[in-house]
Write a structure and sequence with these properties.
The chain is an alpha+beta fold and 356 residues long. It has a domain at 2-137 and 267-355. The chain is built from eleven helices and six strands. The protein is elongated and about 90 Å long. The protein starts with a helix and ends with a helix.
Length: 356
């Protein structure tokens, strides 16, 4: 059986790898074409190529569900087309045993995907977005063109940019009273840097406007200390979309938002999507196997590929739809991820039982 396991695993793994590389190459090509409209004197073709290459790990991670689904269909489909699955079944090997042989290479794919999603793609994506911003707008800033707003207790902060070295520039601090209704002061600072000894930010070259009942008093302050749990590593999380972040960063930032009394639903949703990705991939492989043994047993390869793309995208879109629905109807975001995955797995089990 070990020889059979290796043969099936090799066929499926090779198909998944080829499909994944093709999808990644196509996605990077489309990204390259899309960026050509943004070329200018400081953002040239060589810069675009570097940006696209930096974003490759994130694109690889995003494409894994579809790549696994289509690759499993092609790998098993080729075995079925050559009547190899029929011979294996005739030798007394059950469908369940064949599916287990297919699942084994998925463990390696899941491990690699989890490693990329936690340690590689978040870092390279930060660098990619920072590099793209610096070149497109010819600046050393990294937060984007319009800046970032952040709430910390009764204070609201605006940062014009977050530099790649973790420093802030163009900082505004709007301080309110305990009720959150009366504005007490507005502070403007040219830059901010984190002090690891004092565990807080130091805002340099600051101007503070104290707002009284009848007048506003301005004062020049060389530096102001801002005590905050937001370290530079967590501050960089703010500049990226949730789907680009590592699961650990998503969890820490969602806890921070909850502590501040802010909504953390989107970050929790993205966290569960990444943590439960192995379950989603397993359910997609199960459906792929059920298709090959069932309705797509004698279908052309093109039909299998089309079906795989449809199912893979359907699971993703249902998760995206259930995410906002969980806010409206008040159920836990984890069910927005679990429901499509479990439904997909149950559908695969149903097809296999009907075939068997």
């Amino acid at each position: 059986m070990k020889t059979l396991d290796r043969y099936i695993a090799k066929s499926v793994f090779a198909a998944v790898l080829i499909v994944q590389m093709l999808l990644l190459g196509l996605d990077m090509m489309l990204a390259l074409v899309n960026e050509l409209d943004n070329l200018n004197d400081s953002y040239q073709l060589s810069n675009v190529l570097y940006y696209v290459m930096l974003s490759a790990p994130r694109r690889f991670y995003d494409l894994v569900p579809v790549g696994v689904m289509v690759g499993a269909l092609i790998g098993l489909g080729s075995l079925a087309s050559n009547n190899e699955l029929a011979v294996i079944r005739a030798a007394g090997v059950s469908i369940t045993r064949i599916i287990w042989s297919v699942m084994k290479p998925m463990l390696l794919i899941i491990a690699v995907t989890a490693f990329v999603g936690e340690f590689i793609s978040p870092k390279t994506e930060v660098e990619a977005q920072n590099y793209r911003t610096m070149k497109r707008w010819d600046t050393t800033n990294a937060a984007g063109k319009w800046g970032v707003w952040l709430r910390d207790g009764n204070d609201y902060f605006y940062f014009r940019s977050i530099r790649t070295d973790g420093k802030l520039s163009g900082v505004q601090r709007h301080s309110f009273d305990e009720t959150g209704k009366r504005l007490l002061s507005i502070t403007y600072a040219q830059s901010g840097r984190y002090d690891f000894d004092k565990k807080g930010w130091i805002l340099d070259q600051a101007v503070k406007a104290n707002i009284g009942t009848h007048r506003v008093i301005n004062e020049q302050i060389p530096s102001i200390f801002w005590s905050s749990d937001l370290k530079p590593e967590l501050m960089k999380v703010i500049i990226l979309e949730q789907r680009y972040l590592a699961p650990s960063d998503l969890w820490r930032y969602s806890r921070y938002l909850k502590d501040q009394g802010l909504k953390s639903h989107e970050h929790e949703m993205a966290f569960w999507q990444k943590v439960l990705l192995p379950l989603t991939l397993s359910s997609l492989v199960l459906v792929a196997a059920s298709f090959v043994f069932g309705p797509l047993r004698s279908a052309p390869a093109g039909t299998r590929v089309f079906s795989g793309v449809i199912v893979g995208l359907a699971v993703k879109y249902v998760q995206d739809i259930l995410g906002p629905a969980s806010v409206v109807y008040g159920f836990d975001p984890v069910w927005a991820v679990l429901t499509p995955a479990i439904g997909c797995a149950l559908y695969g089990v149903f097809l296999i039982r009907r075939t068997g």
